[in-house]
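Q: Start with the shorter request: fold the first protein.
A: Done. Sequence, then structure:
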Amino acid sequence: MAAAVSKIMRNQDLILVAKKCHVKTAFRNTIGLPGHLSTRLQPNHPTDDLTGIAASILDGLLYACGDAVIGINPATDNVQQATRLIKMMDEVIQHYEIPTQSCVLTHVTNTIECIEQGAPVDLVFQSIGGTQATNDSFGFNLATLAEAQAAALSLNRGTVGNNVMYFETGQGSALSANANHGLDQQTCEARAYAVARKFNPLLVNTVVGFIGPEYLYDGKEITRAGLEDHFCGKLLGLPMGCDVCYTNHAEADQNDMDNLLTLLGVAGCTFVMGIPGSDDIMLNYQTTSFHDALYARRVLGLKPAPEFDAWLAKMEIFKNNEQFTLNHKLPDAFHKSLNRMIGGRS
């Protein structure tokens, strides 16, 4: 029904109704409050090099990104590597008392094993689809997600809430897996939100243009899909964000992404991505940068999550609640701490 309603709505309808839907979640900060736009700081690296990842984390924090999550897509997807990245992010968060959460976007079964081995896991991630066959192709079922949620809750690492799951979706995933049973992309996508809703996630986002023009041909279709996904997710009670993105072989460019980012900001989108220079050098696609997120907050009068906003003021990254500054104190402090973490490499 949510998908059907979205099909008869114009873009302005999708924006207006979504704007009225407020979904609040919390872990170490509070996500989804009216007047706020959060960001996932995505410091991916093609070799998972800790120095490169640390530099991206610092860069993003200085642009006031990272309140939704500091989330890494690992280049090498195994338990050992995930644990290494989890521990590195946890040390940064704990050392600087950053009111945010970390996540390594590895397979849910890897995260369960990381927890069993004592890793300091904040959020459990999984890509999900809207049919059982799609999720079977992804290598999990609802029982797996329930096991992971229980494991993460047992760690009791949240300070202001206990939403511990992070899901990503995207139109075309069921079709690309030959698991759509003849259903259209948007209906399958809306069904994925029912899967997400069952597990009370902190964050859900559609990676709207990631699969490519085989499923969303150009910037206009990506824009429409992003607004549809955000509307359906919010209507179904999810803390819905969007990876405003496109692949390099799509008929789209960064101006299309600027337009969609602005429209989603007006629509009350929960969070967007923040990647150095808009270019993910590990996943090889184009998305939104740290300064893009800063633009959206400035032009629309939005703020980060309140706890993170207070931290930015304390660290003098923000001054007078609005003036952005590249403060010299934070880089110096990070340099010393990160050198210790990565064994003295600069």
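Q: Next, the second protein, separately.
A: Sequence, then structure:
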Amino acid sequence: MPTLLSAVVRVIVTRPASEAHAWCRDIEAAGHSTWGLPLIELRAAREVRALEAARARIQAFDAVMFVSPSAVHFFCGSASGARGGPLVWRSDAPRALVTGPGSFSALQQCGVPATLIDMPDASSAQFDSEALWQAVHRRIQPGYRVLIVRGHTAGEVDSREGTGRDWFADQVLQAGGHVERVLSYERWAPQWSAATKQQVELASRDGSVWVFSSSEAIRNLQVCGAGMRWDEARAVVTHPRIATAARHAGFGVVREARPVLAALLASIESLR
């Protein structure tokens, strides 16, 4: 089993680079060291025409569900590659639906008024599609039109198994609503140098705490670090589904935490 950690914990933040900075900053402010190791690379969707069409028709929807901060960034921001630059969210625009505070913050950065954003209650045990449905299901009536803005793993066929966005879409359809989907970004596995592989192998057994907010990040870690053992490694994850993926990958210790700073820090510090 791993040895006990010292008072200062090194935390490996595996979120995409565009989302990792804030987590690293806040964790370091709490007195720990961090290593930003993005396990998912994000790129704008190649199907720009479909994205542009969805942006142009945004007033045709009653609500737009964003599956992640990245979905917000690539749909609303200039990084989308769509013509016309950043999307202006008018006061009569559809409601924006998000599963957690990260996406809520991303929408506000894009100029979306907080009064137009729906998300699970701050005290919810989980920030996921199920919790979002509890927050908005009374609004979903026959004919209600929802656009789901999502990402896609490059080179893979989309699977509905275990995806919260598709569960949410099913609930909308069962309530008599209509659902459309559009890709705003693609997810790619990182490419590691020999030096990075050596650092990761060391981090698998040196007492670092790995933080995962995506099951796909764990899958990419297994591919990029093929042959590495994780039975001496410890992880903090932000959802039960991610916890299952971490245990299947062989992590020796797995803790679950809500994706808010206080909960993450409590779980990280419980591993000292």
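Q: Describe the second briefly.
A: The longest helix spans residues 17-29. The CA atoms of residues 205 and 232 lie 5 Å apart.
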